[in-house]
Amino acid sequence: MNDPNGLVYFEGEYHLFYQYHPHDTVWGPMHWGHAISTDLCHWEHLPIALAPDAQGACFSGSAIVDEYDVTGLFNGQPGLLAFYTCHRVLSDDPEDYEQSQCLAYSRDKGRTWHQYANNPVLPASGFKDFRDPKVFWHAATQRWVMALACGQEIHFYTSDNLLDWQFASAFGEGHGAHTQHPWECPDLFELPVEDAKNGQVASRWVLIVGIGATPDNAFGSFTQYFVGEFDGQHFTNDHSPDDVMMMDEGRDFYAVQSWSNTPGRRLVVAWLNNWQYANHAPEAGWRGMMSLPRELTLRATSSGIQLCQRIASECHEALTAVPHTIPPQAMLGVGQYSVLTSLPSVSRGLLELTLAAGSRVALSLQQGDHQQLTLEAGEEDVALRYTRNGVNGQVAFDDHFACDHAAGSVDGLRVTVEWWCDHGSLEILVNGDTQQRAISQVSFISLTTGSIDARVLEGSAGLLGGSVVSSKGA
Ligand code: FRU
């Protein structure tokens, strides 16, 4: 699998469709796979929802509830609509293709899908890369909006009936990160600003944009976001055009999409992988997985309004068993400190540390020093570095897999590290309650147990304590 697609909540069920090649473990003619959940944690596989037809393969897109049957496809009842990109190869050369936007509908809670007879709803344009429609209702202008990736820009279209679409505006030139790769997988939504004080804005719009892997970019594919205003037609960036804000500083967090129809909450999920090695990383009869679902808000920080992410509360509730307490300890000088000798592979945990100015502390969070977070304290802030090594030499499949990179910084010398560890993945949230950094990486190696060690490389630190919860045989 690759991208999450068509995320929508409808009649008590979260739907998660995804880019899927059913006949191989490498990317190929794309279908939409399908799973549903009532609690965002336990998922049930359903049959393939969309398969390639005469229009082409089914690339990424989104889903919404047509509550009042504005399309006329549902006999006056509410129904589900999926907007997706048809990718059609025009000759023997796979690079000779065109992309258009198509519609599919379901009258039975997503169990069966029909491709709309008058597809495409938005024909191929002058842009070769013209894909990944994200459709949502814009209440202030009482219209539907489609955000679409076109070359290295996001284009906005509007519609009254979800079938006819008019171009509104383009955003992107001169803003944020650009590589040789087209922009992909946009999402756009309004979010409250947490703890907004008098005189501050209470909400802003967030535009999420993916950038694929190209040889000119060692990081591979990554997700950036913009904070600004959207008036139903145009997006205006609040930040300086040169600012690049990463949604997650890890190597494996791509094609982020939010669920539609979850009033009061903005939940997202991402593909935990990187196009740099996705097609040749170790596999075990399957390849590719999703991140845990995250809930988003915004927060005013010293560098402007930024995203704040929390793992969805349903996942906290699902991991309920066997709590361990991590006692406080002083780490008074250079050396190795054992924090927890046996870390279950399926667990979440929290550590709180204070660093003396100028100290450096490396935390190993999975087997040995396989995945390591280094905290480098300045006078008033802590810079984060992330290192991923191999276990038993299992990194040879790609030169880019082992990595060591800066992962942002947080204000103050007191740091909270929250981690969610699965057999082959690790999602870390640093300073979840204030100014947050997220780092997500996969290992492709089935880990059964690990440990947490803190190595003081320079200076001293205090571990204020923490806790780990491991799941009951999950
Ligand atoms: C992003 C992406 C999308 C495209 C899909 C094809 O990972 O390249 O732009 O729709 O994957 O599988």
Task: Characterise this structure.
GO terms for molecular function: hydrolase activity. This is Glycoside hydrolase family 32 protein. The chain is mainly β and about 475 residues long. It has 1 helix and 34 strands. The strands form 6 sheets. Strands 13, 14, 15, 16, 17, 18, 19, 20 and 21 form a 9-stranded mixed sheet that branches. Strands 22, 23, 25, 30, 31, 32 and 34 form a 7-stranded antiparallel sheet that branches. A hairpin with a 2-residue loop joins strand 10 (about 145-150) and strand 11. It is globular, with a radius of gyration of 22 Å. The model has no long low-confidence stretch (mean pLDDT about 90).
What layout of secondary structure does this protein have?
Blueprint: E1 4-10, E2 13-20, E3 31-37, E4 44-50, E5 57-66, E6 79-89, E7 97-106, E8 114-115, E9 130-138, E10 143-150, E11 153-159, E12 166-171, E13 183-194, E14 203-211, E15 222-230, E16 235-237, E17 245-246, E18 254-258, E19 267-271, E20 294-301, E21 304-311, H1 313-318, E22 323-326, E23 329-331, E24 335-344, E25 347-355, E26 360-364, E27 371-377, E28 381-388, E29 403-411, E30 414-422, E31 425-430, E32 437-442, E33 449-458, E34 461-470
Parallel strand pairs: 13-20
Antiparallel strand pairs: 1-2, 2-3, 3-4, 5-6, 6-7, 7-8, 9-10, 10-11, 11-12, 13-14, 14-15, 15-16, 15-17, 18-19, 19-20, 20-21, 22-34, 23-34, 24-33, 25-30, 25-34, 26-27, 26-33, 27-28, 28-29, 30-31, 31-32
Structural features:
1 helix, seven-stranded antiparallel sheet, Glyco_hydro_32_N, single chain, mainly beta, glycosidase, binds beta-D-fructofuranose, hydrolase, 474 residues
